[in-house]
Design brief:
Largest sheet: 8 strands, mixed
CATH class: Alpha Beta
CATH architecture: 3-Layer(aba) Sandwich
Strand content: 15-25%
Structural class: alpha/beta
Radius of gyration: 20 Å
Distance between the termini: 46 Å
Number of helices: 9
Oligomer: single chain
Number of domains: 1
Strand order of the largest sheet: 5-6-8-7-9-10-11-12
């Protein structure tokens, strides 16, 4: 299955799945019109148990006006795949805008640096107290492993609400650099941070592809015998490239709107997986020994294409005895917390930051 967890909430053409072929020149199938849209629920289950369904689902009234407007924005359900170069151009433009918008809400100083040969963004929030100078949050950004849609949207608000420095890793991207390149880059930066920060003063987190990578990095840290960080944040991720969950067959990037291809056989995102066995315990942490991993916050949403993946990985953490908490926001799509104009996004980012602060303070008291 091609990568579809791009983690871009503000939808443009750039948020559609990327393929290797430039099929955009083909004429697009016509999108469904209002007259053609189903007006009632239908359900047919075939002999193999595959569900062929339609559903009419209103927007919950308790969502904010901003969230309801976002969910009401029309998006065609048909369209040609997008070339990777075009996708990256779109996500680069999106992240540049997102940096400006989030910085209006969360003032900061942002510098581009290199750690262990890996490029990073370093975000220092305005008003960071002196007692937080010995703590750092390590962000692994989203973007479907083939682009960067989250290094600003995931670092700027969390830095501001936690009042701590965030280092966002600009790891190598697929398909040019498949697994384990992103893991290796993230581990290299983590090792570099360990030279300056105590492990109990470090948190690792990410959204979408970065959430997946966070789980992979935690397993790799354990394999290498390195000290674990104080906490993890896995925000709309998964831990199994070998099999699909229900949600990826039901929801597109923006939930119930937009284009969605039927599920395919084979591993998720073969361009990231490369030649690795899909059940490799680092690539797919559900097959790893997860005992001893640090407290972990999982966050997802009711119309998230990675809802099943997040829930399944959370359950694997619980089976391993990890202090793992799961928060699910109703009705919202994948990575909705990227949107600085949505109250639910502000709430989610505060929740993430508060969890990190609590765990870091807990670690500090135990020293």
């Amino acid at each position: 299955m091609k990568a579809v967890f791009a983690a871009v909430l503000i939808a443009t053409a750039a948020t559609l799945p990327a393929t290797a072929g430039a099929q955009g020149a083909q004429s697009a199938p016509k999108p469904t019109t209002a007259d053609e849209a189903p007006k009632r629920d239908t359900s047919y289950i075939d002999a193999q148990g595959t569900a062929h369904v339609t559903r009419v689902i209103p927007v919950p009234e308790d969502l904010s006006a901003e969230a309801r407007r976002s969910l009401s924005r029309p998006e065609p359900d048909q369209g040609p795949p997008q070339p990777l170069a075009e996708r990256r151009k779109g996500t680069d433009a999106y992240t540049a805008r997102a940096r400006v918008e989030w910085s209006k809400v969360c003032p900061n100083t942002l510098t581009n640096q290199t750690m262990a040969g890996v490029p990073v963004h370093v975000v220092v929030p305005e008003g960071m107290p002196k007692e937080n100078e010995d703590k750092v949050l390590l962000n692994l950004h989203g973007g479907g492993f083939n682009s960067d849609s989250g290094s600003y949207t995931e670092s700027i608000p969390i830095a501001s609400y936690a009042k701590m420095k965030v280092v966002a890793v600009l790891y190598r991207l697929a398909p040019e650099y498949p697994f384990p390149a992103a893991v290796d880059d993230s581990i290299a930066v983590y090792k570099e941070l360990l030279k300056t920060y105590k492990p109990e003063h470090i948190v690792i987190y990410g959204t979408s592809a970065g959430a997946i990578l966070t789980g992979e990095v935690a397993v790799r840290i354990k394999q290498l015998g390195l000290p674990q960080p104080a906490a993890l944040g896995i925000f709309s991720g998964m831990g199994d490239f070998a099999r699909d969950g229900d949600s990826i067959a039901m929801y597109a990037l923006r939930g119930l709107s937009g284009h969605l291809d039927p599920p395919e056989t084979g591993p998720h995102d073969p361009e990231y997986v490369g030649s690795t066995d899909a059940k490799d315990p680092v690539l797919s942490p559900v097959y790893a020994d997860l005992h001893g991993l640090p407290p972990t916050l999982f966050v997802t949403s009711g119309r998230d294409l990675l809802l099943s993946g997040t829930a399944n990985l959370h359950r694997a953490f619980l089976h391993a005895g990890v202090d793992a908490r799961l928060v699910l926001f109703d009705a919202l799509p994948h990575a909705f917390w990227y949107d600085p104009n949505m109250p639910e996004a502000i709430e989610a980012n505060h929740m993430m930051a508060d969890f990190f602060v609590k765990e870091l303070n807990k670690s500090g008291r135990s020293e």
